[in-house]
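Minimal example, chain plus N,N-dimethyl-L-histidine.
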Amino acid sequence: MLEDVRAGLLATPRELPPKYFYDERGSRLFEEITRLPEYYLTRAEREILLAHAAEIVETTRPHTLVELGAGSAAKTRILLAAMHSQAAAVTYVPVDVSEDFLKQTHDALEAEFPWLRVEPVVADMSVGLELPPMAHRPVLFAFLGSTIGNFDATGAVALLRRIRDRMRADDRLLLGTDLRKDRRTLEAAYNDSAGVTAEFNRNMLYVLNTELGADFVPKRFEHRAFYNQTEHRIEMHLHSVGAQTVHVPGLPPIEMRDREGIRTELSYKYDRRAVEELSTAAGLSLTHWFVDAQSRFTLSLLEPTP
Ligand code: SAH
Ligand code: AVI
């Protein structure tokens, strides 16, 4: 972690990787975001899953579901239930960097679905994807919530390729991506009126204080989120309120100028061509493209290109 933080905070402009949002509090704040009126992404994706889970499962006939960045697996239950209607026993492998999130997900799902085997994996998928041997195939890989959008083009292709390398010919990948749309809707989703996204953004500073003994004063950083239309991405930043010096043990003092920013997250938005380009570069081919009624979000079903 210190090496990531060193590289990011000493870079120009400064940046920090979004995986550090997700300690226990960050994971809870993200769950709150998914219920905000402005944050349409989760609701739109749920709508698509409700409409198409049966078809997705029918075309794949999976016995195992591997989910990257599973979080609380709230929407995943729709897929798991659809899988159970076609297979007596189902294995679920949630992969997440947040151990707290995974533990809760594991306990809740086992209590809810007695027919489900849950094999959680704590892993940083941006570094590697070590998975347990999968005895029950085919496997449906799921990468929901537009979390792929938090990776730049190089990182996204590398990650999809890592998944592709774990797939056999009859496995499939279900990929959730947020669609390009008007700036107002996009910016509102990342600037909610209740201020939850701002608190989620600042949570990274609490994480750095706890994990590294840093002395960030979170209230001296302002949340900024805007749509960068040229790059088709939302950018989240934390802006220094006044000039200040931050200490992170092991690093030289970080001198922040008034209003200087730290970029904490990119959230890329796609269209069909962008998803196809990304997939092709990773050795995957698009077979199905599902969209919600308002064309806000999309689920793509991908197969390994032979
Ligand atoms: N899939 C859920 C959660 C999305 S939030 C949904 O659609 O609502 C993003 C999730 O990805 C969080 O649970 C976070 O802990 C996880 N995550 C973020 N970066 C990660 C990384 N590098 N490796 C593994 N998990 C990561
Ligand atoms: C997890 N990820 C896809 C979310 C997003 O929309 O980029 C995280 C998030 N950031 C602010 N609000 C939600």
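Residues 48 and 85 are 18 Å apart (CA to CA). Residues 41-60 form the longest helix (20 residues).
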